Amino acid sequence: MPDTILAIESSCDDTSAAVVRDGFLLSSLIANQDVHISYGGVVPELASRAHQANIVPVVDQAIIRAGIGVDEIDAVAFTRGPGLLGSLLVGTSFAKGFALSRDIPLVEVNHLHAHVMAHWISQQGAENRLPGFPFLCLLVSGGHTQLIVVKDFMTLEQLGSTIDDAAGEAFDKCAKVMGLPYPGGPVIDKLASKGDPGRFRFAKPRIEGLDFSFSGLKTNFLYFLRDAVKENTNFIDDNLEDLCASLQSTIVTILMDKLVLASRKTGIRQVGIAGGVAANSGLRNALLEESKKRGWDIFIPPVRFTTDNAAMIAITGYFKYLKGEFASHGVTPLARYAI
Ligand code: KG4
Ligand code: ZN
Fold first, then answer.
1. Taking CB atoms and a 6 Å cutoff, what residues make up the pocket around ligand 1?
2. Digit-coded pLDDT (tens) for 69-79
3. Percent of the chain that is helix, strand, coil (3-state, to 5)
4. Which domains can be identified in the chain, with CATH numbers?
């Protein structure tokens, strides 16, 4: 009998559902929430309401597109945290209701664990080159920036993390300063491709060891623009592509320097990136370049598995299901949930 897992992801502003069977992805759907764009950031209350509206049709479509019947689902996995509590509550409650009505196990998944596990999503007909252990992963998202050693599917060790802002926050906050829409990361990425990364220099933090810091860069960028705009009110528009390219290059260098250090310290040469910022073309290229120099075996997930998605929850849930790691119906979501 195959093992079939339905997964729900609702930690922030994407309502997503996916189905995995025997480790292979059958379907994965995301309903994005455009409602936040005009506010320049995610509004938690609106996110919860949108999840509530989206979750049934998204799950329905995920099951239909997987080509399975509801009675073929063996367990339901859901994101327990970290994330916005109201958003998490919608997914958690839905998963509990589904599990109860079908009399199947409930599997809780840590969103950060799942971002890393995106490297193990297999698809029928795809190449499916999967990392072995130990695996060194740079997890970079809107809320987190961490260096992680994956020892096995369930054992992850954090080597370092940000002491202030996350890399995604640095992208998004600097984009806001330039008047770009939210989320700014993908917008900067696109504009950067036409700009000169060496045109402007911004502050790189001096943090010992494997921790990160991005708040100094953000402040430096803000003050630099404030002074430049005093001289020329059109400075941002006149230099937008070069500003984006220079900022992106600074962020990527900060990330890559620590990844190189982590590989040197641990001796691990199987290296990957995960999380929303891993969609960044500058970071993806930098990892490719570094791997050629250092002989690393690198793993870069498809873009759709780097930003928030339920496929990563499904694959993590699948491995937990195989181990019999089930949640009780008393389980509650966690806004903060360490890996
Ligand atoms: O993993 P994710 O989808 O959600 C969280 O768990 O936070 O990450 C979202 C973050 C946002 O900060 C967004 O701006 C950033 O990922 N991001 C990017 C790109 N695509 C998404 N940052 C830089 N370049 C991109 N192409
Ligand atoms: Zn995420």
1. 12, 141-143, 168, 171-172, 183-186, 189, 275-277, 279-280, 307-308
2. 999 999 999 99
3. 50, 20, 30
4. 4-121+305-322 (3.30.420.40), 135-300 (3.30.420.40)
